[in-house]
Amino acid sequence: MADQDQTDTWGSKSWAYLSSLRQQSPLIQCITNLVSMDLMANTLLAAGASPAMIHSILEIPDFTPHTQAVLINVGTLTPEWLPAMKAAAGVANRLAKPWVLDPAAVGASGFRLKACLELIELKPTVIRGNGSEIICLSMASIGSTKGADSLHESSDAVEAAKSLAKSSGAIVAISGSVDFVTDGQRVVGAHNGLPMMQKITASGCSVTALIAAFVAVDPAHAFEATASAFSVFGLAGEIGMGLANGPASLRMHLIDSLHGLDRETVLRRVKITSFS
Ligand SMILES: Nc1ncnc2c1ncn2[C@@H]1O[C@H](COP(=O)(O)OP(=O)(O)O)[C@@H](O)[C@H]1O
Ligand SMILES: Cc1ncsc1CCOP(=O)(O)O
Ligand SMILES: [Mg+2]
């Protein structure tokens, strides 16, 4: 009964976030990798947000102040892009706007790890990675990863996530079979989603952008917004899979399902439980 009550509460919260997002349509600046731009922009549009893939350092002073949140993803990082990422994070901080870091493939190289650690110094509101990414970041060491894919279960990374949340002050979110969210003390798990979502490149990047959009409508409650975004994205995947034949059609049906999600389905099927 307690579990059912908790699920009902999270269902209501998740619906409140999704409906606020649809009403407010926040502008989300995405400085993201070259693989993810299309799926990420379509995910944000389907959810009700307004994406802008604007990454030149020359445009940040004019543009970033008009956004409701910033998403920074290092998936195809080059030295030329890093100053723009830091500038956007700096503007977000100065104007008290949330910004979210996706440390995509952080364990691939020392260059990428150093860049992520420097970005974390700029106080992201949320950090979302897969299990390997969160472990690499927390230990500040490279190697235990398979490029952009994870070698770990999300549950393997919960202690690393708690430690990273405490040291950085960010909400830390780990995607996987259960999507965990922690502020260093509390831990919740979002149980929606399905393994086939790993077979769509940039699904992880896209859920991070959705987190940025959910946090944009309620920056004071980034923990709750992050867990809700995970479940809503996973639920769209579950519904989409009912119509799909494989990863390519799941990609399409996930977007359609996110766009069409209704209150009754969210209340009934969102599943988020406490682990702390
Ligand atoms: N085994 C799984 N079961 C259910 N959902 C999953 C599973 N693995 C990943 N997902 C979902 O797929 C999306 C991408 O997660 P993931 O593959 O961990 O990210 P990344 O692409 O960054 O490695 C998330 O929404 C996550 O919840
Ligand atoms: C394949 C790849 N290589 C560099 S970034 C990228 C996209 C990874 O996206 P995701 O981590 O969301 O699967
Ligand atoms: Mg992936």
From TrEMBL:
It catalyses: 5-(2-hydroxyethyl)-4-methylthiazole + ATP = 4-methyl-5-(2-phosphooxyethyl)-thiazole + ADP + H(+). This is Hydroxyethylthiazole kinase. Belongs to the Thz kinase family. One of its GO terms (biological process) is thiamine diphosphate biosynthetic process. It is an enzyme of class 2 (transferase). One of its GO terms (molecular function) is hydroxyethylthiazole kinase activity. Thiazole kinase involved in thiamine salvage pathway. Pathway: Cofactor biosynthesis; thiamine diphosphate biosynthesis; 4-methyl-5-(2-phosphoethyl)-thiazole from 5-(2-hydroxyethyl)-4-methylthiazole: step 1/1. Its EC number is 2.7.1.50. Pfam families: HK. The keyword Nucleus does not apply. It comes from the Eukaryota. Keywords: ATP-binding, Kinase, Magnesium, Metal-binding, Nucleotide-binding, Thiamine biosynthesis, Transferase. Its cofactor is Mg(2+). HAMAP family: Thz_kinase. It comes from Mikania micrantha (bitter vine).
